[in-house]
Amino acid sequence: MPASLTLLLADLQLFPPAASAQAGPIDALYWFEVIVSAIMTAGIFIAVIFLAWKYRRRANVRATQIEGSTFLELSWSILPFLVMLVMFWWGAKLFFAAQNPPKDAMEVFVTGKQWMWKVQYPDGTREINALHVPVGQPVKLTLASEDVIHSFSVPAFRVRHDVVPGHYDSLWFTATKPGRYRLYCTEYCGNQHASMGGWVDVMDDREYANWAGGGSHGSLAEQGQKLFEQNGCSTCHQLDQQGRCPILRGVYNKPVQLDDGRTVTADDSYLRESILDPNAKVVSGFQPNIMPNFKGQLSEEQVIQLIAYVKSLSPATPASQQGVQQRPVVIAPRAKAPAARPPQ
Amino acid sequence: MADALIHEAHEPDIEATHLRHHFATSAQQMDASMLGMWTFLITEVLFFGGMFAAYAVYRNMYPGAFASTSKFMDVILGGTNTAVLICSSLTMVLAVRAAQLSKRRDLILFTILTMIFGTAFLVIKAFEYHSKWVEHLIPGFDFQYDEPRYQHNAQILFFLYFCMTGMHALHMIVGLGLLTYLLVQSVRRVFNANYFAPVEMIGLYWHFVDVVWIFLFPLLYLIGHRR
Amino acid sequence: MATIAHGTPEIAAEEVNYLNVEHGWKSWLLTTDHKRIAFLYLISITAMFFVGGAMAVLFRINLLQPEGIFSAETYNRLFSMHGIVMVFFFLVPSIPATLANFLIPIMVGAKDLAFPRVNLLSWYLYIFGAIFTLYAVIRGGVDTGWTFYAPYSSTYSNSYVLSAAMGVFIAGFSSILTGLNFIVTVHKMRAPGMTWGRLPLFVWANYATGLIQVLGTPVLAITLLLLFFERVAHVGIFDPNIGGDPILFQHLFWFYSHPAVYIMILPGMGVISEIVACFSRKRVFGYNFVAFSSMGIAVLSFVVWGHHMFVTGEAMYTSVAFSFLSFMVAVPSAIKVFNWTATMYKGSVSFDTPMLYCFGFIGLFTIGGLTGLFLAALATDVATHGTYFIVAHFHYVMVGGMVMAFLGGLHFWWPKITGRLYPEAWAKFAALIIFIGFNLTFFPQFILGYLGMPRRYHAYPPEFQALNVLSTAGASILGIGYLIPMIYFVWSLKAGPKAGPNPWGATGLEWEIQSPPTTFNFDETPTVTKEAYDYGPVEEIVG
């Protein structure tokens, strides 16, 4: 028994590591909340104990009937509310920052399905329940679900986002401390929900360069090109001619006018929908019911590959999102300073 | 409420028959019954409200599918039903009035008329549903939609159509049951100027069901209707 | 010093009261007496509490080992059913259907609720719903969590989703009718002189609860109905494969379920107001503010539901609005806590069991409520959503708060309800055990949550084991703590000393009638001339 107790205690953590640029600021808010809560709790506990003791029942001592005090009511409503406003503002500010990844964020694609995370990198590397990222580089995860709602979470980075089937979700972070950190699924998704976890490896430049080598099947965009041909997409969407279908070269992230008058942006979600439910949005000037519906024929991972291919047809797509190896094999410091906050 | 004045001149015997033991006066009992019915109707508003919310969300998401499905909404039948229900509300009000004035014969007559109109509504609805069945437009029962473009979204919209009108029809059926009860009690001379709370309460319920239809009809049948 | 007056000789002969006026199962199962119905409810919800509690003990045992002990499937069904049973079949009806059902007519000076037969119907609907849900439990359980999220619940789960959901659907109508009854009773059945401003705060709290029950529960009903159709006929309303939106389910679900959590705390707050007044021998400090804060909570509760969905991809500005409103809804709760504390100032405080539960409530609800602020703040919610932090937060408010208040209220009004006194020493002991067990169970979970341990996990990384073991140890202590009152309450029914009309010397119409009351409560309708907590003339009006 004592031996296992030691083991228990040896493993004991009380606070998660802070391994991302946003972890520190979020922890700061967390500690503020803890301190405010501790003060309030202590205050109430002390007040209750003190008052109960000081005014404990004694023979021949009557209670004094007091109506109330508007001044006190206003004070103890407004002052706590002001403190809450600080929490609100602070939390909202950090939340905003978490919504918008920097333009040079490295894109990684994560597909959740019962009960594993399948990770795809632009250079074609794939892994399951594991994520390898370089230190100091903003990383944007595009999240897709094959089935039910999952939720991707890395406590050490203080990031989390639900992965809802039917559209893409995303989150971003900049890892700041090399090491291994747990990742979890945190939305109950069925039987093996608890097994749907793994590790994020944050590596320094050299390690990462050694690890990143591309998949044996080529980059994501190359895999996408194969699918494009195998599934007959090229028949219509011949890249430079307007056949029965809209042009794809240069379409990524551009505005598109639909046949019902709406204008939308051809982002990842739009491209995904165009493949899996082509009739949902039909480009103005083209006919509905012509493009086959690939729902059930292409997995979310394959759709990601196709989208990577379409993105590669746009000259404006940053190198970080094409099938180009992310990190040059250098040991010297980067020329450009990282946009993220310095690591904690 | 003018009813308070009527209650002033009460006959203790009749009151004793209907006054429940926990109420002090029959005015209190009437008041409580009315508030109870209004509160219950508010819960119904929230209940239908959930469906209206889902409908609003999907209509907003799929305007094309909505426009496409609207041609299957039979405005003639729907409009006829609207007229039928409005008439039934008129006869219901007249029934309540008759009870307030102790006019038993009129009460019975108008209750029966209301039931006839209510039944007519359900019969017309049955025709409508049948035509949908024949055209394979009932989700979950071999649903087929002629425009493949809108197949899936139309299924959702039709489901909401059946859910909303079906819930409404269910409430109508319950209403007919309540009216049957009312009829029986009227024949047994239970209601008069001193005791007509159940008539008024059931009247409220009936009007509510009518009002739900007044919202359903334009939303489902009229707006964006395409031939 | 205790305030209990032990059974006095004058009550030697058995008075006629609502319990002994009639015998036989028909007189109970067809009763329309709100007091008997409250008693029926008390037995039913206690049974459900122990069903849900047994599940909790089982899955906490599973969590002793990082790799789990039972299968994942078993664990998933246990936690889901624990939630469903505890939320819908214990907490939501708890105080309203038992204590408030019993007390509200008496407190307003009426002979019964406005609609006694509807009250009985409420109980039958509860039982009918419970049967459906227990059927699911017995047949092997449901594993969707009490939240029934689509598309898992609608398409993927192969557990007894339908019968569990239909049980909840039916029980929802029980809740609606109870709320309706309370609303009409408080509006229309107050005795002469009982103005709104003279109502006990317990009545205000349960009135506000009734408003939430009436307005919120129908939306749950339609949500479960849509889920029913989706599961049975695959109509696609929540199926993303054909354009349905799983997030719509969440909006509809939480539109009820957030206000529901206030159904699960407001009545407890009402109890605390009554107890703190009696055991400080003082009117509650700031009566108006406490009364209106109940109404404020009821109103605000309907506009914060989106804080359960901050990580679903809710639009940013929507999230900001919900975050702000969620902070606002904390203010009325804080007002109450301060007012209760201030009530003890210059009071005459005694430490009988109800007051001990009151202290426990104030402390633990404060912690629970404050941790709610962590979750109202967007950034820290993202860091803790779906983890044990949430589990700890809601158990602090629902168990540390509401259940303690329920126990406090049961002890306070036990003499009135049963005509018997419970054993004070055992009661104090149990209260202490419960307090210790509760904190040991749930405080470590805050730490686990920020560490990242997800909820609804049958197995977990080994570094979390120490804290889980602590938590399970606490749970066993808590379980024992809950058993003790069960035992002595039942014992007291036959062997407890008989209680007089007002063993605590409390104010309130319920203490002016015999214990237990007669069927019609009052021989003649009282005329009320005094304020609610008239323990003495007002001596200080602090400006």
Protein architecture, described:
The complex is a heterotrimer of chains A (344), B (227) and C (543). Helices cover 34% and strands 19% of the residues of chain A. Chain A contains eight helices and 13 strands. Chain A folds into three domains: 19-57 and 68-99, no CATH class; 106-211, Immunoglobulin-like; 220-321, Cytochrome Bc1 Complex, Chain D, domain 2 (Orthogonal Bundle). Chain B has one domain: Up-down Bundle (Four Helix Bundle (Hemerythrin (Met), subunit A)), CATH 1.20.120.80. Chain B has 227 residues and is mainly alpha-helical. Chain C has a single domain (35-512), classed as Cytochrome c oxidase-like, subunit I domain (Cytochrome C Oxidase, Chain A, Up-down Bundle). In chain C, helix 13 (353-376) packs antiparallel against helix 15 (388-418) and helix 16 (424-451) runs antiparallel to helix 17 (465-495). The two termini of chain C are 32 Å apart. Residues 1-12 of chain C have low confidence and may be disordered. The interface between A and C is large, with 93 and 107 residues.
Q: Rg of chain C from C-alpha positions?
A: 23 Å
Structural class by helix and strand composition of chain C: mainly alpha
Strand count, sense and barrel status of the largest sheet of chain B are:
none
Multimer state: heterotrimer
Question: Helical stretch count of chain C?
Answer: 17
Query: How many whole angstroms does the radius of gyration of chain B measure?
Result: 21 Å
**CATH homologous superfamily grouping of chain C:** Cytochrome c oxidase-like, subunit I domain
What pattern of helices and strands is seen along the backbone of chain C?
Answer: HHHHHHHHHHHHHHHHHE
Number of helices of chain B: 8
Q: Would you tell me the overall average pLDDT of chain B? A: 90
Principal-axis shape of chain B equals elongated
Helix content of chain C: 55-70%
Please tally the β strands of chain C and state the result: 1
